[in-house]
Amino acid sequence: MSNVAVEVNGRSYSWPKKPVVGVCVDGSQPGYIEDAIKAGVAPFFERMLVDGTSKIADCVIPSFTNPNNISIVTGRPPVVHGICGNFFYDQTTDSEVMMNDPDLLRADTIFKAFEGHGAKVCVITAKDKLRRLLGKGLSFGEGLSIGFSAEKANEVTLSEHGIENVLDLVGMPLPDVYSAELSEFIFAAGVKIMERDRPDIMYLSTTDYIQHKHAPGTPVANDFYQMMDGYLSQLDAMGCTIVVTADHGMNAKHDENGQPDVIYLQTLLDDWLGEGNTRVILPITDPYVVHHGALGSYATVYLGDNIDQNALIEKLAGYDGILMALDRKAGCEKFELPEDRVGDIIIISEQHKALGTSSDRHDLSGLKEPLRSHGGVTEQQVPLLMNCKSDISADRKLRNFDIYDIALNHSI
Ligand code: ZN
Ligand code: ZN
């Protein structure tokens, strides 16, 4: 198998010479890693920066978790794979549909392609909502691929996840879904499975619970990066190629009093155009709202029949705190999104503004710290690090979904 190049979604990947570990650090705005290094708690990250490869890449817009994770594992943007948010409005059935069903994924993953050529794959994610998408098409069972979430690590079976008794293997209790340990469990499991099985391709994808609450350089953030640093250095010692990126960045979105700084779009549009003429969709919304209250910097709006779209776009684009408003065609072209899962208008707010629907539809009771969130173009820049040098041309515009290309085709 050693000379096989694997083709998937129009890209080609060389066979791994040693195990490749792709890491998606959820919400890792540039600055977190650098500040942890400055604090002296991240010596392995420092070595990657100094002796390896250190670049800045662009993530996919909307800068949310699912579209970016799926882009990373397919190597292509949402226009190809179809996942452009945590949920979308299905006009044919007039319903809002969660986008965690593997049937909605329109492309094969890099993992499935490699497995098809005999590779052993291991995918570990924080929340179960992503696991089924990331594991789509893989074969799980004794000696086959492995795929599970830290959230449901107590429920794994050989037939469904390719592994059993993960809690015993890792030696940690089941972590709380809102905790730093949820992410730590992923790395601890990754190290144990690398030791035991030495899979050819591994993907570790964390949750941004910490980044939503703690800015770069703060003690809790530094602790979190110190934790990752320790596990990554163990994977490095086992001879893995490690490539690290983020699904998106993270910015403060609150006023000077620490209150969320929000444009409530549905309220605004009802005010301008009358109730029932528009439907605002916030694709950040998911069942886990404690860390962001479903407030991000990206929204899409469906319009009723009698709305003057161009006039509305002009009015929105000029509204204080809105960075851009684009019609479906222009927005989908610019951000490489699937037109059938995006509304008539795409709206992106400024760096420190969030977008909501109406204040009564956001439960902010779980927000104990001033709001930090993502979704817009101001959270598009993410780190791209590798533990060895690469031959990437200096002028290449990198995307976070290039990590397996970088690791497999460009590591030296
Ligand atoms: Zn995320
Ligand atoms: Zn988030």
Report on the structure:
The chain has 412 residues and is an alpha/beta fold. 31% of the residues lie in helices and 20% in strands. Strands 4-19-10-3-9-7-8 form a 7-stranded mixed beta sheet, sandwiched between helices. Strands 13-14-16-15 form a 4-stranded antiparallel beta sheet. Strands 1-2 form a two-stranded antiparallel sheet. The two termini are 20 Å apart. Bound molecules: zinc ion (2 copies). Residues 27, 65, 208, 212, 292, 374 line the site of one zinc ion (ZN).
Question: How would you summarize the topology of this molecule?
Answer:
Blueprint: E1 5-8, E2 11-14, E3 20-24, H1 32-38, H2 43-51, E4 53-58, H3 65-74, H4 78-81, E5 87-90, E6 95-98, H5 110-116, E7 121-125, H6 128-134, E8 146-149, H7 158-161, H8 166-170, H9 180-197, E9 201-205, H10 209-213, H11 219-237, E10 241-245, E11 251-252, E12 262-264, H12 265-273, E13 278-281, E14 298-303, H13 309-317, E15 322-327, H14 328-335, E16 345-349, E17 354-356, E18 372-373, E19 381-386, H15 403-409
Parallel strand pairs: 3-9, 3-10, 7-8, 7-9, 12-17
Antiparallel strand pairs: 1-2, 4-19, 5-6, 10-19, 11-18, 13-14, 14-16, 15-16
Helix pairs in contact: 1-11, 9-11
The structure holds zinc ion (2 copies).
Q: How is this structure best summarized?
A:
By secondary structure, this protein is an alpha/beta fold.
| Sheet having the most strands | 7 strands, mixed
How many discrete structural domains? 2
CATH architecture call of the largest domain: 3-Layer(aba) Sandwich
Structural class: alpha/beta
Could you list the spans in which at least 5 consecutive residues all have pLDDT below 50? Answer: none
Name the strands of the widest sheet in spatial order: 4-19-10-3-9-7-8
Radius of gyration: 21 Å
CATH class type of the largest domain: Alpha Beta
State the fourth-level CATH superfamily of the largest domain. Alkaline Phosphatase, subunit A
Share of helix among residues? Answer: 25-40%
Strand coverage percent: 15-25%
**What is the tally of beta strands?**
19
Q: What's the overall geometry?
A: globular
CATH topology name of the largest domain: Alkaline Phosphatase, subunit A
Mean pLDDT: 95
